[in-house]
Amino acid sequence: MIKRFSLLIVILLVLGLAACQGGKTKGNLMGVVTREGTGDPVPNPVLIIGRVLKSPTVPDFTVHGDTEGRFEVTLLEGNYTVQIGTSISGPFFEWPDPVPVEGGKTTIRAFQIPPDI
Question: Which pTM value belongs to this model?
Fold first, then answer.
């Protein structure tokens, strides 16, 4: 009896977390990655985008930019951390400020990374 009750509680918690995330609207984050100092675009940048408040139902996103350093991704509304690199194996530069994404809107950011990344 206790096992069934415990299983029911776990199922309700999982469904509750999923419902909380399901009520949020999505927005876009787009922009360009350039080199600090020169302003040259960083070809094929890799961005790791994660929620400031981590959630088991919202994983980090890995986004690959194009040859001109441009990227675009659709995310649930919220505040995100951004790490930027030139290769999936790193190293990565962590953007110092959270990036807000509003539901139904597009957030545009120009990220500059140090020359040694």
Answer: 0.72
